[in-house]
């Protein structure tokens, strides 16, 4: 009796495997390829990932990848664009509420660290290599966009403190760069909790800003 049941089960299993699977719709296939490409780009980077590998992982032929994205560059652009939207969306939301500069600094710092914590693969894609000649979509360009938002906040704060608002752009770049590089370090060295990292960053940035000289000068001039 048991052998008969096993034979019946084996036949049913073979019949199920031989039954043609439902084909993905165009949008479903596109999302599948994006998911496959995203993982490969995060693990290996743009240069080391090939169209052949994407197609093999998705169990499709190479022409299918070209049909949807025109090539590896097109797929990479879509993946990066989504990551940029996710990161910028979090930071922009953190800066929307009209609060004091210190609170906004804390929120923006936590927004970046939240993204790194919740989406490490996406962050790795942004900080990895990008296609040669690509001027947008790199991590540097993302940080530049964030710095522009921070710049306006700093300019207003500088005016209140009697400092030159024209120096806000360079301070914005320094602040954003400091947070971003620390985030990269924290991504692979989770020795500190997220809130601790944010607290240390804000402590350095805020206390440094609160003690700025009106006309900063170097103590020793470099030899020329």
TrEMBL record:
Keywords: DNA-binding
Basic and acidic residues compositional bias, start-end: 10-19
Superkingdom classification of source: Bacteria
Segments forming domain HTH tetR-type: 27-87
Gene3D superfamilies: Tetracycline Repressor, domain 2
UniProt KW Iron-sulfur keyword: no
DNA-binding annotation, residue ranges on this chain: 50-69
PROSITE patterns found in the cross-reference section: HTH_TETR_1, HTH_TETR_2
UniProt KW Glycosyltransferase keyword: no
Region (Disordered): 1-28
Name of the molecule in the record: TetR/AcrR family transcriptional regulator
Protein's organism: Terrabacter carboxydivorans
């Amino acid at each position: 009796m048991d052998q008969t049941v096993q034979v019946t089960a084996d036949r049913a299993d073979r019949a199920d495997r031989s039954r043609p699977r439902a084909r993905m719709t165009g949008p479903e296939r596109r999302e599948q390829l994006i998911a496959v490409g995203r993982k490969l780009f995060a693990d290996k980077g743009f240069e080391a990932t090939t169209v052949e590998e994407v197609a093999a992982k998705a169990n499709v032929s190479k022409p299918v990848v070209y049909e949807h994205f025109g090539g590896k560059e097109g797929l990479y652009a879509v993946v990066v664009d989504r990551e940029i939207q996710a990161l910028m969306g979090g930071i922009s939301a953190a800066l929307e509420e009209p609060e004091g500069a210190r609170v906004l600094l804390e929120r923006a710092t936590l927004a970046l660290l939240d993204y790194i914590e919740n989406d490490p693969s996406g962050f790795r894609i942004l900080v990895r290599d990008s296609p040669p000649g690509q001027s947008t979509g790199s991590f540097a360009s993302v940080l530049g966009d964030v710095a522009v938002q921070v710049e306006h906040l700093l300019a207003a704060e500088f005016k209140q403190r009697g400092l030159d608002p024209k120096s806000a752009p360079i301070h914005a770049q320094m602040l954003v760069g400091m947070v971003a590089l620390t985030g990269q370090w924290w991504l692979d060295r989770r020795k500190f909790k997220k809130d601790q990292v944010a607290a240390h960053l804000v402590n350095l940035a805020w206390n440094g800003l609160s003690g700025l000289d009106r006309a900063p000068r170097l103590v020793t001039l470099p030899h020329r």
